[in-house]
Amino acid sequence: MFVVAITACARLGPERRPEVVPSPNRMDEEPTISLFVNETGEKKQIKLEEYLAGVVAAEMEPTWPVNALAAQAILARTFTMENIESGRVRQLHGTDVSTSVEESQAYDPSRINDNVINAVKKTRGEVITHNGQYIKAWFSASNGGKTASAAEGLAYFKTPTPYIKENADDPYSIKNTLPEIAQWTATIPGAKVREAVRSVGGSDPGPITSASIEEKGPSGRTVKLRINNTSVGGPAFRLAAGSTEIRSMFLTNVSVQGGNLVLTGKGYGHGVGLSQWGAKNRAEEGQSPEEIASFYFTNVQIEKLYD
């Protein structure tokens, strides 16, 4: 995600930055944005970099390496600018952004520490663009060792996303991660499965007697799951049945036991864009924020919006 039309995946060396160039949309100064606080209904004005510190602190573990947090900051800044440009939150609340994860990004200023402050400062003004447009700066906790396209991981087809690096090996994403991320098993009660299938597929499959992977995407993720005789989209089913329990659709085994759905898989999240565990491990090996982020995107630039 950096201003170098970055296509290579090779190591660039400790702290070597892909080229960062002035943005065609360059601003004279850091913008002040409007924030809707969903918890209280308050509307406030806040400097963009101050807002980003609260986002980074909420979206990534604040004790992680500064360069991992800084890579997250580049994505958060990009996401924010794309979100503001779209007008999505303004239609809801009359503000640029909100504190809702569903509407904007997670936000928790109480978690800000020196690591987070330094990370945001280190990448001040940096955003990722493709052909002059802000990218959709997706990320997940761990891609399970393989990146996914937006179509495969998110069932996203609304706009083209050619800058998402898909089906790329990412061993850093599963290196030294938590056991429950490296491999996990989830048992979903039959009643919850039926409810999820109804909401996604439109019909009740009845008592759960069989389940199988119907279709996999290029990276090996389940894009279609068959429950009894009903076919459902993998990403949509995961959200409906519980994305905390079903940590990803990178499934390695599917079965039915006692009327319940039992899934085994790896990774945590949709696997599209940056992997946070991958960022952590890359940072620990000395990669720069720009180098870390650039692995997960292709044909992009890192632009500096303001000093």
Features:
307 residues, alpha+beta, 2 domains, 3-stranded mixed beta sheet, 10 helices, 15 strands, globular, disordered N terminus, SpoIID/LytB_N, SpoIID/LytB, SpoIID/LytB domain-containing protein, Bact_Sporulation_Assoc
Per the principal axes of the C-alpha atoms, what is the gross shape? Answer: globular
Major sheet description: 4 strands, mixed
Gyration radius over CA: 20 Å
Mean pLDDT: 93
Runs in which pLDDT lies below 50 for 5 or more consecutive residues are 1-15
- Please give the count of helices: 10
Kindly report how far apart the N and C termini lie. Answer: 18 Å
Strand content: 15-25%
Structural domain tally: 2
Structural class based on helices, strands and sheet pairing? alpha+beta
Helix content: 25-40%
The arrangement of helices and strands along the chain is EEEHHHEHEEEHHEHEEEHEEEHHE
Strand order of the largest sheet: 1-15-5-6
The total of beta strands comes to 15
Organism: Desulforamulus aquiferis
Pfam family, one: SpoIID
InterPro entries: Bact_Sporulation_Assoc, SpoIID/LytB, SpoIID/LytB_N
Protein name: SpoIID/LytB domain-containing protein
Summarize this, please?
The protein has a 4-stranded mixed sheet.
Could you explain how this protein is built, in words?
The chain is of the alpha+beta class. Helix content is 30%, strand content 21%. It contains ten helices and 15 strands. The strands form five sheets. A four-stranded mixed sheet has the order 1-15-5-6. Strand 5 (126-130) and strand 6 form a beta hairpin. Helix 1 crosses helix 2 (66-86), helix 1 (48-59) packs across helix 4 and helix 2 crosses helix 4 (114-122). The longest helix has 21 residues, at 66-86. The two termini are 18 Å apart.
